[in-house]
């Protein structure tokens, strides 16, 4: 009979290695997860090109999300990626309409400014002086990163497979969810509108090729998968995702949740960087829920 000592050594080593790996992974996870309520940090003094990824649901979630985005500052959020589930043509259409409206409003604003400058010009010298002043202001605005970023080149719509289809068996759901998780990494790594073979020509293109600075969601099931994917990137600090402060997450609980959190909210409460609720009854849930009034 062969001695059992080598087998015991192997088993002991395997157990010790597994325990060490588990402890290390737990400590790493604790280091990147938020602790307690949100504490304001020092803002960047100089505005920089920023990419934001917006997770859209279907129906009510999408409707609420665009109410949240109605005052979106395109000088600050310079590239928008709208993430929708496959088959959700409604959300994709709403995203395109929202961006078209942003472009329309900006064109109208430029038209009014131009008409005002023409009507207010009393002399050629004054007109020239005003033109120089406007050019100076625009140049200074672009140098400060305040360029208005609207148009097809400043947004994209990414599609990922559904984590679970209607009437799908629970036995196959883990496999479809894993496939959705793998597909979610692609829109996180860069926007779909960039030309990967060409180097970025400016800071705005560079931002669109990087991880999103911010992920915003209001509770669709796909959001859980996307935020899990972002957590993986931060856990392994892929391309400096964690050390550079990328893929920060904001969860806004649905207006329909008055006294209890949604399933997505319960799952993400201690994972996202900020958790916002719209009813005072939910303030302080889990020690992290922030109440800022009705947002939609």
TrEMBL record:
Which GO molecular function terms does the record list? Answer: N-acetylglucosaminyldiphosphodolichol N-acetylglucosaminyltransferase activity
The entry's protein name is UDP-N-acetylglucosamine transferase subunit ALG14
- The primary site where this protein sits is endoplasmic reticulum
What family does the Swiss-Prot or TrEMBL record give for this protein? Belongs to the ALG14 family.
Going by the UniProt record, its keywords in alphabetical order are:
Endoplasmic reticulum, Membrane, Transmembrane, Transmembrane helix
Q: What are the recorded Gene Ontology BP terms?
A: dolichol-linked oligosaccharide biosynthetic process
Concerning InterPro entries, the annotation shows: Oligosacch_biosynth_Alg14
Q: Write down a Pfam family by its short name.
A: Alg14
Transmembrane annotation, as ranges:
6-30, 170-195, 215-236
Q: How does it assemble?
A: Heterodimer with ALG13 to form a functional enzyme.
How is it placed in the membrane, per its record?
A: Single-pass membrane protein
Give a yes or no for keyword NAD in this entry.
no
Where is this protein found? Endoplasmic reticulum membrane; Nucleus membrane
Q: What is the purpose of this protein? A: Involved in protein N-glycosylation. Essential for the second step of the dolichol-linked oligosaccharide pathway. Anchors the catalytic subunit ALG13 to the ER.
Q: Give the encoding gene's name.
A: ALG14
**Mind telling me which PANTHER family this protein's record contains?**
GLYCOSYL TRANSFERASE-RELATED, UDP-N-ACETYLGLUCOSAMINE TRANSFERASE SUBUNIT ALG14 HOMOLOG
Q: One GO CC term of this entry?
A: UDP-N-acetylglucosamine transferase complex
Location of region: Disordered: 114-144
